[in-house]
Amino acid sequence: MIPARERLIVALDVDSEKEAERLLDALKGAIQIFKIGSQPFTAFGPKIVDLVHKKGCKVFLDLKYHDTPDTVARAAREATRLGVFMFNVHSLGGMEMMKKCLEASSETAEKEGLQRPKILAVTLLTSITPEILQNEIGIKGKGVEDDVRRLAALAAEAHLDGVVSSPQEIRVIREARGKGFLIVTPGVRPAGSQMDDQKRISAPKEAIKAGADYIVVGRPIIMAKDPAKAAEEIIKEMEG
Q1: Fewer CB atoms near the end CB (10 Å): N or C, the chain?
Q2: d(CA 41, CA 47)
Q3: What's the pLDDT band for 132 if we cut at 50, 70, 90?
């Protein structure tokens, strides 16, 4: 089993490189994996990934690639060359897109002597509610759980390593896909934290009990007066 300390991913959603470095130094020893999302990557580019690596930590590149199969394949090659631990694509991009992504990453890793990153498929964003899914996006299925189960099955058929999914669908995916299929869960909020723009959320302990391999926490840690203490409290809850 992966130790709790290695299962907590901190979202490095910062406005400056100085702030990123401050947080990396503050969380050194407590956190091993940091998530780099669209905002910091757009602001700072690949050097934010290099900064995390220089601090001896791993990167979850959370750019949610969703484009034509060839375009995503090219992006996957570059993500592999960056040496990230894992990155993700949107499952709604379809089977061909996911397969080409995996093929491009695997070929690049083998050709250049690199470790292939774990590749995850995003099922539905944690900000999506059943009402948004049906009334705005126009997917009128049996509900969020059924759609997530179907999208996770599509990712598994494409031979991706796992999925990114909200806490509320962890059990559904784990029951359907079994062990060995990674589940990375954002939308995790310790007791007393604000929901912010997340809708389908859960506490750290509940996410782990449900079967998540990794949980992602951002603002409750990076906005805390003492980020290291906030991280240690979450780790302690996960261990419990």
Answers
A1: N
A2: 8
A3: confident
Dihedral sign computed on CA atoms, order 27, 123, 173, 155: negative
Catalytic residues: 64
Q: Which two tokens stand for residue 150?
A: 């179907």
145-185 residue pLDDT tens: 888 999 999 999 999 999 999 888 999 999 999 999 999 99
d(CA 84, CA 9): 13
Residues 6 or more apart whose Cβ sits within 8 Å of residue 224? 230
CA distances from 94 to 73, 130, 138, 154 (A): 13, 21, 17, 8
Q: Which one-letter amino acid corresponds to residue 185? A: T
pTM of the model: 0.90
Q: What is the pLDDT of residue 191?
A: 57
| Residue in the structure block whose two tokens are 């020893």 | 29
Q: How far apart are CA 21 and CA 223, in angstroms?
A: 14
User: Any bridge partners for residue 34, and if so which?
Assistant: 10, 59
pLDDT (tens digit per residue) in 88-98: 999 999 999 99
Tokens standing for 70? 């060839």
The closest alpha carbon to 101, from 138, 73, 70, belongs to 73
Determine contact, residues 74/105, Cβ cutoff 8 Å: no
DSSP character at residue 104: H
The pLDDT tens digits of the residues spanning 190-219 come to 755 554 544 445 788 889 999 999 999 999
Amino acid at 222: I
